[in-house]
Amino acid sequence: MTTIQIRVDDTLKKEADALFASLGLDTTTAVRIFLNAAVENAGIPFSVQHREIPEHLQEAIYDSRYRRNLIGPFATAEEAVAAMLED
Fold first, then answer.
1. For residue 5, which of 25, 22, 28, 26 has the smallest C-alpha distance?
2. What is the pLDDT of residues 42-83, one digit of tens each?
3. Cβ proximity of 84 and 74 under 8 Å
4. What is the DSSP letter of 64?
5. What is the pTM of this model?
6. Could you tell me which of 51, 49, 50, 69 has the C-alpha nearest to residue 59?
7. Cis peptide bond prior to 54, omega within 30° of 0
8. Residue 73, CA atoms < 13 Å, CB-side half-sphere
9. Three-state DSSP class for 50?
10. How far is CA 67 from CA 41, 59, 74, in A?
């Protein structure tokens, strides 16, 4: 028998613990189920894919990456919030 140690965010751990407890499992058992399913499926036992990003969000991402259509800089946080609420 071997031990696996992983680091995860505290919030993720608490949420996962609560989810698995609601299913009658502890996190260790859930991880063991995942590993067994991965071996049985010869891969990750669920779909791993990119989500389809709506076109308006793709454009916003492009704009932020290439610094297009940006407003600012702002002298204060209040000015930034006011600019966001103008539309």
1. 28
2. 999 988 887 888 999 999 989 988 888 888 889 999 999 998
3. no
4. H
5. 0.55
6. 69
7. no
8. 2
9. coil
10. 44, 12, 15
